[in-house]
Amino acid sequence: xxxxxxxxxxxxxxxxxxxxxxxxxxxxxxxxxxxxxxxxxxxxxxxxxxxxxxxxxxxxxxxxxxxxxxxxxxxxxxxxxxxxxxxxxxxxxxxxxxxxxxxxxxxxxxxxxxxxxxxx
Length: 120
Ligand SMILES: [Zn+2]
Hints:
By secondary structure, this protein is an alpha+beta fold. The chain is built from two helices and six strands, in the order αβαβββββ. Zinc ion (ZN) binds near residues 74, 77, 91, 94 and 96.
């Protein structure tokens, strides 16, 4: 299942990002930015994250998911544009389909909040 793999990756990354003197059990919130192109079902990801977080050492961490919109650059005319419909990539200036995706892909941790309110 795609979302289970993503939940595991988030917890792995969280563990690596955490300073040595901060325990995973003190993490209260993990904020992730998920690209819209990754087609994550937020409810499934949150559910699976909650299922595995304790055994991965983050029993009190809540997951917050922010979705990153998709933007592209046209390789023909260099126009940069947001993509409102992810099924349909073309440049609004010249109608070229030769575009490069700039944002909206990948999953990364934006911030973690630990017990005393410190963000890491
Ligand atoms: Zn163009």
